Amino acid sequence: MSDSNDKYILSKRAWTIASITILVVMVYVLRLFYLQIYQNEYKDFADSNAFFKKVLYPARGTISDRTGKLLVYNQPTYDIVFIPREVQNFDTLGFCQILGISKPDFEKRMQEVRNSVGYSRYTLQTFMTQLNAEEYGLIQEKLYKFPGFSIQNRTMRQYNYTTAGNILGYVAEVSKSRLEEDSYYNRGDYEGKSGVEKSYEELLRGVKGVEVLLRDARGRIQGKYNNGENDQVPVSGKNLKLSIDMDLQAYGEYLMQNKLGAIVMLEPSTGEILCMVTAPSYNPMMLTGGRNFKANYKTLADDPAKPLINRPVLGTYPPGSTFKLSQGLIFLQEEAITTTAAFPCYLGYPPLGRRPKCHPHASPINFVPAVATSCNAYFCYGLNAMLNNRKKYKSTSEALEVWKNYLVKMGFGYKTGVDLPSEKRGFIPNSKFYTKAFKSGKWNASSIISVSIGQGEITTTPLQIANLAATIANRGYFYTPHIVKEIEGQPLDEAFTKKHYTGVDARWYEYGAEGMARAVTGGTCRGINLLPEIEVCGKTGTAQATGGDDHSWFMGFAPRHQPKVAIAVLVENAGFGARFAVPIARLMVEKYLKGEVVSKGLEAQMASKAVLPVRVRAKRKSNADSVTQTQPTITVSEPTPSTTVIEPQQ
Are 30 and 161 in contact (CB under 8 A)? Predict the structure, then answer.
């Protein structure tokens, strides 16, 4: 019995010892696995003792306009970098004086480096970026006094023009979240933050290279490792050619000074954006980086005018009467009306007690003259006829869904897909929206009649209205608007070369074009009549705005046959469409199609007039001249006034 007990005890001890041994071995194996696979610090230490890996930054792609004018290019600049473990005691105060920073600022920067993503004491870290040539010269002379620190060559963006800031965008240091998302970037790297710079970041940035240098036992550089066979040559970013005409862009910004709003001009046959003016804009040189970047950005961000907002794609507004063309085309396609059917108008829509109101014109009236005179009542009758057609639709809700789907195909209610960031979609209501809004399904055409004339819940962007003009110019299809015309070495995305049809027959678009042509020769937008040289088709809009005067709209295209340009102009809080939007559109069309502006008196008048909300004038009176903007041929002051951009009420 005792022998068996002894054997059991010995067996238990052996099992315990074996288990402990296995556990210890597993701990060592797991620790070794962690150190080799997940812990880079020791590898960095070993590598840094033997090698110095110098990052070679690629040249960022240049940007030019459709005529080949260079807009954005690169200029040499310098970064101060260091390897933390090699930094020794040095004259910190002298270092700060050379760089023009304070001791607390120095300590703050060093702490930010230690807290950055991927920090290692053994790898190169960035202390300060974008030193100019003078600063580089000062620090280079005394660099030997600051062990561990070195200079790294980089480039920074430069601009040949002070216009198109919102189109081009700006480049700035990557954020912490971006460092975590994309392994391409290291602390101190730069990326596109807005505009084309952001949309095409992966093409513009290129591919980094590396130069592997050999160290001796004391850490001194001895030359290239393995005769440079392990080096990687940087690959420059792709060059971009934009579709915009920079002279046209600058001229549009000149006309829109001291105003709020937008101008968008498209080439209907391609969807290329010829100009995209937002008022106010900003001088892109303000955001080239360096130590003034934060202060300049704050100035722009705090400006009540919101010059950083690209209104053509980010501003959403009621489109007013420019929207009537989309309505009439839907009603014709759905046989709610005919081109010959005439409806009465007695200074307004009779069934609702002359609400919405209208201006004097002949009555009764059919489709083409209704477009030419912008008759509110006519399009109210059209919406009523469509939504109440029980022979075709089972309910008002079903009819409204058909109506909404046409508008979506026309490019409303969703993003157009333009190659610029942060585009807004605007708002087109559906039946669920109204059922929720009225808290029941008991709503009808009369309840929502204002949408037929581009008011009520409807909101669009200026780009969408320009796209509507391009669609009418093409008689029923459009290309996705885009700002980049060519990419070096590769084709454009197929999304920009595909036709999008609206589902409305081309024959109805011919009637729409005729109505717009008559609006120019004898209707609401006679101010853009350029006959006999150019037959322009146009439509004005006067849209009610929240908390201010009406918005002034115009949309159109020219020539009527084989059109070369479509345009939308919005001047916020400027009143009737014919007052500001029409004359500005006339000057822009003249500039583009004739190559010169004949209407010099009108040009001077539009450029000199200011349309600023009272609240903005009061806030900006003290610093209205703080930001100047120089056109290639004309120097003007950039006012950067402000208004609240109207969002859809949902």
Answer: no
Report the candidate in 98, 79, 276 with the shortest Cα–Cα distance to residue 195.
276
**Rounded distance, CA 232 to CA 630, Å?**
42
How buried is residue 34: exposed, middle or buried, by Cβ count under 10 Å (0-12/13-18/19+)? exposed
Cα gap 64→461, rounded to integer Å: 26
H-only helix segments in 116-245: 133-141, 165-168, 176-181, 195-199, 201-204
Phi and psi torsions of 558, nearest 5°: -160, 150
C-alpha dist (Å) from residue 519 to 397, 430, 515, 523, 554: 33, 31, 6, 4, 11
Write down how long the chain is. Answer: 650
Asked whether the CA dihedral 301, 305, 307, 312 is positive or negative, the reply is: positive
Contacts of 335 (CB under 8 A, 6+ apart): 392
| Residue showing tokens 């300590």 | 107
Residue pair 565/267 in contact by the 8 Å Cβ criterion: yes
- With residue 334 as reference, give the H or E element that holds it: none
Q: Which residue has the tokens 């460092």?
A: 179
**Of 84, 71, 108, the residue nearest 239 (C-alpha):** 71
Whether 255 and 604 have beta carbons less than 8 Å apart is answered as no
Residue 621 DSSP one-character state: G
Give the residue from 501, 493, 311 showing the smallest Cα distance to 417: 493
- With CA atoms as reference, report the closest residue to 374 among 274, 299, 454: 454
**Residue keyed to tokens 């004038």:** 617
Exposure of 309 by Cβ count < 10 A (0-12 exposed, 13-18 middle, 19+ buried)?
middle
Q: What is the 8-class DSSP label of residue 396?
A: H
| pTM of this structure | 0.86
* 205 DSSP assignment: S
What mean pLDDT comes out for the span 528-535? 96
For residue range 444-477, what is the model confidence (pLDDT) as tens digits?
999 999 999 999 999 999 999 999 999 999 999 9
The first and second tokens of residue 246, run together, are 């920079």
pLDDT digits (tens, 9 = 90+) for 421-448: 999 999 999 999 999 999 988 899 999 9
Name the one residue in this structure whose structure tokens are 């010099």.
600
The 3 state secondary structure assigned to 273-305 is EEEEEEECCCCHHHHCCCCCHHHHHHHHHHCCC
Phi, psi (degrees; rounded to nearest 5) at 128? -150, 140
Query: Cβ(490)–Cβ(200) under 8 Å?
Result: no
**What is the dihedral sign for C-alpha 126, 132, 135, 138?**
positive
